[in-house]
């Protein structure tokens, strides 16, 4: 088994496509790039297609057409999306593009003029129309039945649960509000209905996602409908009543976040907060158009830990932001020493077309960005290594993600799938299966991963 690489990109998700089709059934392939929010969009598209009688293919060769759900957050992600589109065209020839990069259709068609259609993010009906035009549906009413849980691109035991779309913030490095619009929250009762169906279908872990999870419901004025209030604290409490693990992603550190911590201490919600702090120096944060109160953030972190000592804090940071001086970067390193975050990722700043940060003065040279990234990750790695070493000898609960001939790959409550570490069981794993939640004793710790025994 292998451990996770230290530079694992937290914005990358990959679809696991179920391949079940009958002879002659019209078949659509799917390539899903980008964050887990895009993965949810892909699941919704494929669920609709399955209901209309289409089969879903995991490869280009077996498909009548291919949908590429793209990412457009960073220039490197755009390049990756263009590469994926080009590969799909070369292997299949009939390609429909959707997702965040679809907000720039000329950018896509300029590079790949032979794509059949380009639609923007969460434009489900437009995607379906494009599929109908390329590959007409041919459902068999006696065979093609929509499964109760829809189509899932993650293992059966966990699922992403999107609670809102869009964002009201205007961070200078980000174009998500331009691509996905302002915050639009789903009704709380609709979120709960979806969550209940997922748990009934065997999902053991709900991963709550949005662009800004802690702002959930503000656009709906926190209204109550059908017994459920559209507020993140109420929603978290309601989700926690379902009996599954509930993990909160992309939580902006508003003051009311402190109201979530008692729910974690009581076991209703996993003691895990994914908060994008981005930086620690007040001047850098101001140039980002982010709140510039790093000292108060340290106070908040201390308060959270006083209520819930087991809380795991994950965050991402940008190094080499325009105007970042060596002194500002050193402040970030010093802040990291004080904050002692459990899970940390970093990006080297990139210009993104349409972002206001592009026009800032004093862009940092590539070699300096790389040096700062390396120094930042070295410090983060040492903190992670020390924190994991302290877990040796402890008995903890883990969820089993995969079992093969080498052993079982599991996660603790401190680990989100794809972006955090793993716990590996190398002996006595024969009776385990994906989705099991078991108690293990930690025997060994690495930089990002643990090893244990039942």
From TrEMBL:
Keywords: 4Fe-4S, Cytoplasm, Iron, Iron-sulfur, Metal-binding, Ribonucleoprotein, Ribosomal protein, S-adenosyl-L-methionine, Transferase. GO terms for molecular function: protein methylthiotransferase activity. Residues 8-24 have a biased composition (Basic and acidic residues). Binds 2 [4Fe-4S] clusters. One cluster is coordinated with 3 cysteines and an exchangeable S-adenosyl-L-methionine. Residues 389-454 form the TRAM domain. Its cofactor is [4Fe-4S] cluster. One of its GO terms (cellular component) is ribosome. InterPro entries: Elp3/MiaA/NifB-like_rSAM, Methylthiotransferase, Methylthiotransferase_N, Methylthiotransferase_N_sf, NA-bd_OB-fold, Ribosomal_uS12_MeSTrfase_RimO, rSAM, rSAM_horseshoe. Catalyzes the methylthiolation of an aspartic acid residue of ribosomal protein uS12. This is Ribosomal protein uS12 methylthiotransferase RimO. The gene is rimO.
């Amino acid at each position: 088994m292998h451990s996770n690489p230290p530079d694992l990109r937290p914005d990358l998700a990959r679809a696991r496509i179920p391949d079940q089709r009958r002879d002659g059934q019209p078949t659509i392939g799917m390539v899903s790039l980008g964050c887990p929010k895009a993965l949810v969009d892909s699941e919704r598209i494929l669920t609709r297609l399955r209901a209309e009688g289409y089969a879903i293919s995991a490869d280009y060769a077996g498909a009548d057409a291919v949908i590429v759900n793209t990412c457009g957050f960073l220039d490197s992600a755009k390049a990756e999306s263009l590469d994926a589109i080009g590969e799909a065209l070369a292997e299949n020839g009939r390609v429909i593009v959707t997702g965040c990069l679809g907000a720039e259709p000329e950018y896509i068609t300029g590079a790949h003029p032979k794509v059949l259609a380009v639609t923007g993010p969460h434009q489900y009906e437009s995607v379906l129309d494009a599929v109908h035009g390329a590959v007409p549906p041919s459902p068999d009413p006696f065979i093609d039945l929509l499964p109760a849980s829809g189509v899932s691109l993650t293992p059966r035991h966990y699922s992403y649960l999107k609670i809102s779309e869009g964002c009201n913030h205007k961070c200078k490095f980000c174009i998500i509000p331009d691509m996905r619009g302002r915050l639009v929250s789903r009704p709380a009762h609709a979120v709960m209905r979806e969550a209940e169906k997922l748990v009934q279908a065997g999902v053991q872990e709900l991963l709550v996602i949005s662009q800004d999870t802690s702002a959930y419901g503000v656009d709906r004025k926190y209204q109550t409908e059908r017994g459920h209030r559209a507020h993140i604290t109420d929603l978290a409490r309601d989700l926690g009543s379902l009996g599954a693990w509930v993990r909160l992603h992309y939580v902006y550190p508003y003051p009311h976040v402190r109201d979530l911590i008692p729910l974690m201490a009581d076991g209703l919600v996993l003691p895990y907060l994914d908060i994008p702090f981005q930086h620690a120096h007040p001047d850098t944060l101001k140039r980002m158009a982010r709140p510039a109160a790093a000292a108060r953030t340290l106070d908040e972190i201390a308060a959270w830990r006083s209520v819930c000592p087991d809380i795991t804090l994950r965050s991402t940071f940008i190094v080499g932001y325009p105007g970042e001086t060596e002194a500002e970067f050193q402040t970030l390193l010093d802040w990291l020493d004080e904050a002692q975050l459990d899970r940390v990722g970093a990006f080297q700043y990139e210009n993104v077309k349409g972002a206001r940060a592009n026009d800032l003065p004093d862009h940092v040279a590539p070699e300096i960005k790389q040096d700062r990234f390396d120094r930042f990750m070295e410090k983060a790695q040492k903190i992670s290594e020390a924190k994991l070493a302290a877990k040796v000898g402890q008995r903890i609960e883990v969820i089993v993600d995969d079992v093969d001939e080498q052993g079982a790959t599991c996660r603790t409550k401190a680990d989100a799938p794809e972006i955090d570490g793993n716990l590996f069981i190398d002996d006595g794993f024969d009776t385990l299966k994906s989705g099991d939640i078991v108690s293990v004793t930690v025997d060994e710790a690495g930089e990002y991963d643990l090893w244990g025994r039942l």
